[in-house]
């Protein structure tokens, strides 16, 4: 690369004096991206310009690191053209996806996913990974991994934010769009996605739609020994789950004038799943080995669906003062879900309950109204001040009917309503100098929570919470390529409706219910990070410490021979994490990336005194190699070392995964891309993921089995052109909150 650039400089100098090509080359070079490395940015791909006698090679930057986030440039990653968004995220630094497609950031499953800087209905709930698989990566412009949100973000929520910035094709001309399709004959059926952007005058709109069908074979094997009685419970089940995901989004912008901008966003998703039948059995033996009871289980889930839709309106006003911006926003989001589940017990021997099955018919709904004001004002050359206020009104409701076969006296109906009102205000000061960037902020939130039980099953209650949330961070540039970052942050988590609802669900050997007495939990995090990024390689690493004294978590205990599950907020959690990420060019056309996340985690239940500590490591590898005939080979994998703490009671065994792909682009401007992929082809079709309960009232192992083999083909076609794209305001609504239950924020359920 260096020799080619030197040669190009000599050619350009000669031609400049000898012919008109010199002027053309000079003008072209002025318009090209700079070849020198920008601070904290990584170049791993190239593009060439042929100017007659002059060939210029300019490098594309894929990774950039700022004081609050890491940015991955998906638009310039050629391997992303035919991937879905979930597969694309495997290449993003700090993001890991395990063999069960569980997503984590810096080793933590606690995060939220945004679209263009705000929560989106299409990226909400525990169905996140299914929705991400239905979105073509070609619709994503860049991914921002926000590791230090600051005071402007909600105090409630999670430590990290994954922001997907969508394509707006602002560098093209006319009408543009993308059509993609995929097919996996082993389990993931047909899928497709489209994006269309249209601009006329000051008005621009973008429309997205996607669909994905999935078929999953899965199972569960469990053994549990009750320490108080010596009884041994064994269970076995197998089933096939069919899912369908539809998502859509419409965004539009109208530029009133150079200072005023209106934007509108509306979207949602529909998710349905069905289980034709769960075949299994459960048996219990006494401490002396004698059979206590036995029964076969036939379970059906003919109906499960959830849909989420919402809209947001933003008005942005810029003043004549450079950088001064005022934004007013309103957002509405709503979620509905319905489940109809049945269980029947057959071939019964000495069943310990009076019923021979049950039906669970449940409905849940969530509505949220948000009003927000934000103000940004520069203060001289180096300083900037942010301030804002926010009001949220939320309503949650669940309606559960339990009907027991041959035991009508046990039938239950539970109606639970939960309302939350939140008022918040924040102020934040930012400094940006040549070597130092710093930020300090303070946020205050007042919360009023109210729970009602119209059926009289529980006593109504309400709570008032006051939370002060400070944050601070600093980045120091050692050189153009090296930097150090330090940050302190805190946040809170409010419990969701599934965690609060006291409605009971029973089986012959289990009982589960929520806890309406849960309070918000408060989390603290300290991070120190080092970055070395040049045009040839990047080295990133750091250490962090996270702690919480009232974490919300699951509680397991024995109650008269029943395995009882509920939730508590008295868990003490301490974690240390050491992480590293490396990405470098190995040889011509080859790039290697990845690294470990090593963490030591301690959880302690202050009620029981139980404590559980272990270390583990999750390691990722990403390799790409350009081949002749415009082919690109990719290999992606991940594996565990050590045993990960799942809860105060249990740990999980190590796992691994791998995926390989071969892709090629066709037609003018590489508008058509085709990708073949395969993964986890060796070994059994159903892979086992065991977890071991090692303390508490039980001892045992629970093994989840899932189909992980993958063979697929995906095709993407890009058409049209566009001069301008859908604009977005600089600041908008970001609700970032709930632990458990129906959520609109889009992250993982804890």
Features:
22-stranded antiparallel β-barrel, Maltoporin, Chain A, disordered N terminus, mainly beta, disordered C terminus, globular, 6-stranded mixed beta sheet, 5 helices, 6% helix
In short:
The chain is mostly beta strands and 750 residues long.
Q: CATH homologous superfamily of the largest domain?
A: TonB-dependent receptor, beta-barrel domain
Helix percentage: under 10%
Mean pLDDT: 79
Task: Count every helix, treating DSSP H or I runs of 4 or more residues as helices.
Answer: 5
Query: How many distinct folded domains?
Result: 2
Q: Which structural class matches the secondary elements?
A: mainly beta
Kindly report how far apart the N and C termini lie: 47 Å
Number of strands: 36
Indicate the low-confidence ranges by residue numbers.
1-59, 169-173, 736-750
Name of the level-1 CATH class of the largest domain = Mainly Beta
Q: What form results from the Cα inertia axes? A: globular
CATH topology value of the largest domain: Maltoporin, Chain A
* Strand content bin: over 45%
User: Main sheet?
Assistant: 22 strands, antiparallel, barrel
């Amino acid at each position: 690369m260096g020799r080619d650039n030197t040669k190009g400089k000599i050619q350009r100098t000669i031609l400049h004096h000898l012919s008109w090509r010199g002027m053309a080359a000079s003008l072209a070079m002025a318009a090209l991206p700079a070849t020198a490395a920008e601070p904290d940015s990584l170049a791993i791909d190239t593009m060439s310009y042929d100017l007659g006698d002059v060939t210029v090679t300019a490098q594309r930057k894929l990774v950039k690191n700022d004081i609050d986030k890491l940015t991955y440039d998906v638009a310039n990653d050629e391997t992303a053209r035919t991937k879905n968004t979930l597969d694309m995220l495997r290449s993003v630094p700090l993001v890991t996806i395990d063999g069960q497609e569980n997503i984590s950031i810096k080793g933590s499953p606690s995060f939220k996913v945004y679209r263009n800087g705000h929560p989106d209905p299409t990226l909400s709930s525990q169905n996140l990974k299914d929705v991400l698989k239905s979105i073509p990566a070609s619709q994503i412009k860049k991914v921002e991994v926000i590791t230090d949100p600051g005071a402007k973000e909600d105090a409630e929520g999670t430590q990290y934010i994954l922001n997907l910035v969508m394509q707006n094709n602002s560098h093209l001309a006319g009408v543009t769009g993308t059509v993609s399709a995929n097919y996996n004959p082993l389990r993931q059926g047909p899928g497709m996605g489209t994006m269309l952007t249209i601009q006329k005058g000051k008005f621009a709109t973008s429309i997205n739609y996607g669909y994905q069908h999935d078929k999953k074979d899965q199972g569960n094997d469990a053994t549990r020994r009750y320490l108080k009685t010596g009884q041994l419970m064994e269970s076995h089940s197998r089933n096939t789950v069919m899912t369908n995901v539809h998502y859509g989004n419409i965004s539009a912008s109208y530029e009133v004038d150079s200072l005023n901008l209106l934007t509108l966003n509306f979207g949602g998703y529909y998710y349905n799943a069905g289980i034709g039948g769960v075949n299994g059995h459960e048996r219990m033996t006494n401490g002396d080995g004698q059979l206590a009871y036995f029964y076969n289980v036939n379970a059906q889930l003919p109906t499960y669906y959830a849909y989420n839709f919402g809209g947001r309106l933003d008005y942005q006003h810029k003043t004549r003062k450079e950088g001064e911006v005022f934004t007013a926003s309103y957002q509405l989001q709503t979620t509905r879900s319905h489940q109809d589940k049945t269980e029947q017990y057959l071939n019964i021997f000495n069943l310990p309950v009076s019923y021979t099955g049950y039906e669970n018919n449940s409905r849940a709904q969530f509505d949220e109204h948000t009003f927000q004001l934000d103000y940004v004002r520069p203060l001289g050359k180096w300083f900037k001040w942010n301030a804002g206020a926010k009001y949220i009104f939320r309503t949650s409701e669940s309606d559960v009917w339990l009907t027991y076969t041959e035991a009508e006296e046990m039938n239950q109906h539970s109606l639970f309503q939960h309302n939350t009102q939140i008022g918040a205000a924040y102020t934040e000061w930012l400094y940006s100098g040549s070597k130092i960037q710093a930020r300090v902020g303070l946020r205050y939130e007042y919360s009023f929570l109210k729970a009602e039980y119209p059926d009289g099953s529980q006593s109504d209650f309400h709570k008032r919470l006051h939370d002060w949330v400070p944050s601070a961070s600093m980045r120091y540039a050692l050189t153009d390529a090296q930097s150090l970052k330090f940050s302190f942050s805190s946040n809170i988590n409010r419990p969701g409706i599934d965690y609060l609802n006291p409605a009971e669900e029973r089986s012959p050997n289990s009982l589960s219910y929520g806890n309406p007495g849960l309070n918000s939990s408060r989390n603290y995090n300290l991070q120190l990070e080092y970055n070395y990024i040049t045009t040839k390689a990047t080295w990133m690493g750091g250490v962090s410490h996270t702690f919480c004294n009232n974490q919300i978590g699951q509680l397991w205990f024995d109650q008269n021979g029943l395995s009882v599950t509920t939730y508590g907020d008295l868990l003490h959690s301490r974690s240390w994490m050491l992480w590293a990420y490396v990405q470098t060019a190995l040889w011509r056309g080859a790039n290697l990336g990845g690294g470990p996340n090593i963490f030591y985690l301690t959880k302690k239940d202050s009620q029981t005194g139980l404590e559980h500590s272990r270390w583990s490591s999750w390691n990722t590898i990403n390799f790409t190699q350009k081949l002749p005939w415009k082919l690109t080979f990719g290999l992606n994998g991940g594996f565990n070392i050590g045993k990960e703490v799942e809860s105060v009671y249990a740990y999980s065994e190590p796992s691994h995964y791998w995926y390989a792909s071969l892709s090629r682009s066709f037609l003018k401007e590489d508008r058509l891309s085709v990708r073949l992929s395969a993964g986890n082809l060796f070994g059994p079709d159903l892979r086992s993921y065991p977890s071991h309960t090692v303390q508490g009232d039980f001892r045992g192992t629970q093994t989840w089995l899932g189909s992980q083999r993958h063979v697929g083909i995906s095709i993407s076609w890009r058409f049209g052109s566009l001069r301008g794209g859908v604009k977005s305001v600089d600041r908008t609504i970001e609700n970032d909150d709930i632990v458990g239950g129906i959520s609109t924020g889009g992250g993982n359920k804890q």
